[in-house]
Amino acid sequence: MSRIEEWTDKLAELAVFGANVQPGQLVAVTSFIGKEALTRKVAEAAYRRGAKYVDVVYFDQWIKRERIALADDESLDYIPPWMSQRLLYLSDEHAARISLSGPHAPRALDGLDPARAGRDLLPSLPEVGEVVNRMTTSWCIVPAPTHSWAEIVYPELGREDAYETLWEAVAHICRLEADDPVEAWMERWATMKASADRLTERRFDALRLHGPGTDLTIGLLPSANWAAGDLVTVDGRRHSPNIPTEEVFTTPDPERVDGHVTATIPLELAGSVISGIRVEFEGGRAVKIDADQGADALRAVASRDDGARRLGEIALVDDQGRIGPLETVFLDTLIDENAATHIALGNGYDHPVEDPADKVRINQSLVHVDFMIGSAELAVDGITRADEVVSVLRHGAWQL
User: Fold this and answer.
1) In which residue ranges of the chain is CATH 3.40.1830.10 found?
2) Helix residue spans in 21-134 (DSSP H)
3) Do residues 242 and 338 lie in contact, with contact meaning Cβ atoms separated by under 8 Å?
4) Tell me, what DSSP letter sits at residue 270?
5) Which residue of 74, 135, 259, 291 has the fewest CB atoms within a 10 Å radius of its CB?
């Protein structure tokens, strides 16, 4: 067995563990052309755990290209209702959901109008936020390398060398080289949860993030807790939504965000690459969105609804993870967001917030777009309700 075959087996097992697939459970897999080997191993691992049925949906960015290039402008917001109905059915059935991330055709949308591309976010569905907040499904996203993805991450290498190098990176950041990757992740999550608990105990009124190109103050909801690692469904099933994950996150007050931010890592958004993002906030709303590349795509997403220009998440990432030290841009949000502190425009998560009065204030939107603003130079301070300033992160190290 080759190293890649061994890593594929381990990653499939880790994905099924992350989604906590149960005997008799429906399992939905979202994949892309070029990721068939890992997809099949995920199905095998799920059936070995007793899955009732594994339903796989494949997407193809080259088909999306034809739509964005040729479809009537008024039709670009159309989402086939059976796609949403499938997701809602999975929610009703308390299914497990597994998604394979990473661009399979990163150049498929080259040369197209970014504003048109930003209107088609499939395979992401507008009901995802609703289902996540219901906590009815156990779910997990893992990266699945492809040759085309590897070529844009390591353009200086040949096709096969780039592919193996990408697999080596994924194996490292997913802890596949450990004798027991599950145990390795359990240890990392325990450390992250301890950091989350310390943040929750302080009950800061706001955070200030400041560094080169960024000075942003984010208000926090009084009953918002900080979360990390794994989550628990309404049925009491623990699951890990993201592998890898290195973030400690919470749901902010969408009405209290002021200042400006500059992205430190390019964002891959449904096939479009957006780099050099700069956003200005006033009274919680993004009043100006610019970028060196792909600004129109991000503006199109931020215009989807009233909540798309407000924050739904703030996530802090320390320097103890495995992604940041690689100093590699993977152009996959799952990986890149866990390399650096980030914020998300759009829908907020319900589960970190306890008080019903605070829950009704959570931002609501059909989109959720993370982009990375962290670096070694970014400082994070907590602001108490007495206006005391407390150092939280410096040079990636926790100060609490």
Assistant:
1) 3-180
2) 36-48, 61-70, 81-92, 114-117, 128-134
3) yes
4) T
5) 74
Residue type, position 200, single letter: T
Three-state SS at 274: strand
Using CA atoms, how far apart are residues 344 and 254, in angstroms rounded to an integer?
Answer: 11
pLDDT digits (tens, 9 = 90+) for 26-53: 999 999 999 999 999 999 999 999 999 9
Task: Give the model confidence (pLDDT) of 337-387 as tens digits.
Answer: 999 999 999 999 999 999 999 999 999 999 999 999 999 999 999 999 999
Token output for 258: 């002021």
The phi-psi region of residue 277 (left if phi > 0; otherwise alpha if psi is between -120 and 50; otherwise beta) is beta
- Give the C-alpha distances (Å, rounded to integers) separating 72 from 82, 163, 283, 301: 21, 37, 36, 18
pLDDT band at 270 (very low <50, low <70, confident <90, very high): confident
For the record, the structure tokens of 189 come out as 């999550």
Which CATH class, in words, describes the domain spanning 3-180? Answer: alpha beta
